């Protein structure tokens, strides 16, 4: 597997008379490409050598990712596009891989208009200011279940409507 890591580091002087601080801080950015496809990016704060350990951890998890076959000649963007998943227990589909170079994908719920609100906003009874009809999530987000095998569009209609009573009777009742 071809693994490319690109680091851009710089030193920044931080002078703060109020806090009594005048120091040099290391910072920068890094990108990770697998099979010559950029798949993650991040920021360097503190010691760049410590960041290399984090890059290694992310790389190992991405190499074993459930939804991407790195030995396949098909680009990761095509492998992920349209993938059926569960996100926070809601059926969803990958609608965009335009943010894949950031290590993210865009998800849209299937069968419902929006993803449910974040649990922390429910406890405080406030609006979470989160656009829930399409969300951007990291590939390694623990709330994604990658093994939903039912094709998008095959989900049962949660609220079926019928033009006639005969249509409603023609559909068999679910077995219990």
Essential attributes:
176 residues; alpha+beta; five-stranded antiparallel β-sheet; three-stranded antiparallel β-sheet; 18% helix; flat
Classify the beta-strand content into a percent band: 25-35%
Structural class, from secondary structure content?
alpha+beta
**Alpha plus pi helix count:** 4
Radius of gyration: 22 Å
Number of strands: 8
Biggest sheet character: 5 strands, antiparallel
Mean pLDDT, all residues: 82
Principal-axis shape equals flat
SSE topology string? EEEHHEEEHEEH
Short description:
It contains four helices and eight strands; from the N terminus they run E-E-E-H-H-E-E-E-H-E-E-H. It is of the alpha+beta class and 176 residues long.
Explain what this protein looks like in three dimensions.
With 176 residues, this protein is α+β, with helices and mostly antiparallel strands. It has 4 helices and 8 strands. The chain has helices at 48-63, 76-80, 119-123, 165-170; strands at 3-16, 21-34, 37-45, 84-87, 90-96, 104-109, 135-138, 144-145. Strands 7-6-5-4-8 form a 5-stranded antiparallel sheet, with no helix packed on it. A 3-stranded antiparallel sheet has the order 1-2-3, with helices on one face. The N and C termini lie far apart (49 Å).
């Amino acid at each position: 597997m071809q693994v490319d890591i690109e680091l851009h580091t710089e030193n920044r002087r931080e002078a703060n008379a109020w806090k009594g601080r005048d120091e040099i801080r290391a910072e920068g950015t890094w990108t990770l490409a697998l099979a010559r496809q950029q798949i993650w990016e991040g920021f360097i704060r503190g010691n760049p050598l410590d960041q290399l350990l984090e890059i290694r951890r992310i790389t190992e998890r991405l190499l074993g990712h459930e939804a991407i076959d790195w030995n396949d000649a098909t680009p990761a963007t095509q492998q992920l596009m349209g993938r059926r998943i569960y996100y926070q227990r809601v059926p969803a589909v990958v609608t965009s891989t335009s943010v894949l170079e950031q290590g993210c994908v865009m998800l849209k719920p299937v069968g419902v208009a929006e993803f449910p609100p974040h649990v922390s906003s429910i406890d405080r009874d406030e609006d979470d200011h989160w656009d829930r009809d399409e969300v951007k999530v990291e590939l390694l987000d623990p709330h994604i279940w990658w093994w939903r095998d039912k094709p998008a569009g095959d989900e049962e209609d949660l609220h079926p409507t019928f033009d006639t009573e005969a249509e409603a009777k023609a559909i068999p009742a679910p077995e219990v």
